[in-house]
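ok, trying the design again with the full structure, not the truncated one.
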């Protein structure tokens, strides 16, 4: 096909018109061997039909999703969500209420967006920031929440993210993780939940002051997350390699993705306490002298956190603006850890009882033994996540020895087993007793 030749003409195989060829764009598709050709007007028409079809298809998919939203909202009122979480998470009632309302409102926002003209009013996203010590149940709460709602849920470690151009993971990896959690279904991924764990690790090192040095894993990452949290199209490569012009990309719209960020925020209580100090806490003869016993405890302070405290910690104001819901979790007490061991549906003690019941063994823990486990967990300062490790250490020899015999037995774990690794009490029992599940 010659370019810029006014005398050259060719018939379009679609519209059968004679097309004068002045450039390659007059007849973009042309096969000299068969004479098959498509002119630019036909290509424009075909593209228009495809766009129109895609819009109709998108509307029908949206209608289908809106119908499922009605079902989700009807079944998952805030009180229903909290009651479900109560079965698995001990205490943290305030955090459960905040999360239940935030998730319910998020799905109501989605319904409003699909059923109303966007020019009327735009309801902003209720992204959540969770603050609480290590092992207090942040991730567990969200995992159970995603099971209840039956929606894709992906956890990404924020501390592994780096600014574009540095070695590490780009912020888009959070959306890619959700895409795979949704079994590569883009529509499902666009209505899921992303949880960014260890979010406090990307606080800028200089806190409220700007840093003049490169900070690849901190402020730049926060800036990269801004547009994603607010809502926009995120492009990423399926294989996870860095983006380049030749790599095929997948596009996911984050407008209806709920972002929840969480972290321990170690030291935030000191920032809160400093802000709460009254004027009469200065120095001089009239000052109130505080002793160590007067120092406010973490659980009293954490619920008083404000956006300005988070900014002082090192979270940039723009991110705080996109995280309007602040959810605080308390430190777990010894009594809380005792309940976690036995009360939830998936309590660690219940899990071991079920495992040993398969070997015709009835497992029992004395109260003092459970108390010793809770005390050890408090000493380790890692909250509920250390309970399983402590039990695993104690149960290792028992789990190794028990399968050597098929004789029905009762194994009683005592305080001495926990503290000194002594052998548990083992008593023979009848077959009927093993069939009765331990409480």
């Amino acid at each position: 096909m010659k370019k810029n030749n006014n005398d050259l003409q060719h018939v379009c195989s679609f519209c059968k018109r004679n097309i004068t060829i002045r450039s390659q764009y007059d007849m973009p598709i042309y096969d000299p061997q068969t004479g098959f050709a498509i002119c630019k007007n036909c290509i424009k028409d075909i593209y228009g039909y495809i766009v129109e079809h895609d819009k109709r298809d998108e509307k029908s998919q949206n209608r289908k999703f809106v119908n499922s939203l009605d079902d989700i909202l009807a079944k998952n009122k805030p009180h229903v969500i909290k009651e479900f979480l109560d079965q698995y998470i001990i205490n943290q009632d305030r955090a459960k209420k905040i999360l239940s309302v935030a998730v319910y409102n998020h799905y109501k926002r989605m319904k409003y967006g699909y059923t109303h003209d966007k020019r009327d009013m735009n309801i902003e996203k209720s992204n959540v920031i969770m603050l609480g010590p290590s092992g207090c149940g942040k991730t567990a709460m969200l995992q159970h929440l995603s099971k209840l709602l039956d929606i894709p849920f992906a956890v990404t470690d924020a501390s592994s993210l780096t600014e574009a151009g540095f070695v590490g993971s780009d912020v888009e990896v959070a959306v890619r993780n959700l895409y795979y959690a949704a079994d590569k279904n883009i529509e499902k991924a666009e209505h899921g939940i992303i949880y960014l764990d260890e979010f406090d690790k990307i606080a800028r090192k200089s806190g409220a002051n700007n840093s003049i040095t490169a900070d690849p894993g901190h402020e730049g990452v926060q800036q990269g997350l801004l547009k994603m949290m607010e809502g926009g199209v995120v492009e990423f490569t399926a294989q996870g390699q860095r983006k380049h012009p030749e790599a095929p990309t997948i596009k996911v719209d984050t407008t209806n993705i709920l972002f929840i960020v969480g972290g321990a925020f170690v030291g935030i209580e000191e920032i809160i306490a400093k802000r709460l100090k009254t004027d009469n806490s200065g120095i001089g003869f009239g000052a109130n002298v505080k002793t160590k016993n007067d120092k406010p405890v973490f659980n009293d302070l954490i619920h008083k956190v404000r956006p300005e405290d988070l900014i002082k910690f090192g979270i940039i104001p723009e991110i705080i603006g996109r995280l309007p819901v602040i959810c605080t979790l308390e430190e777990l007490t010894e009594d809380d850890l005792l309940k976690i061991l036995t009360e939830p549906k998936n309590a660690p003690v219940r899990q071991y009882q079920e495992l040993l019941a398969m070997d015709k063994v009835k497992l029992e823990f004395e109260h003092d033994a459970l108390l010793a486990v809770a005390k050890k967990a408090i000493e380790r300062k890692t909250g509920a996540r250390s309970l399983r490790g402590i039990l695993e250490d104690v149960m290792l020899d028992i789990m190794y020895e028990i399968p050597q015999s098929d004789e029905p037995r009762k194994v009683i774990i005592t305080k001495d087993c926990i503290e000194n690794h002594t052998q548990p009490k083992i008593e023979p029992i009848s077959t009927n007793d093993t069939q009765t599940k331990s409480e």
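Keeping the full-length input from now on. The chain has three domains: 1-65, 76-328, 334-435.
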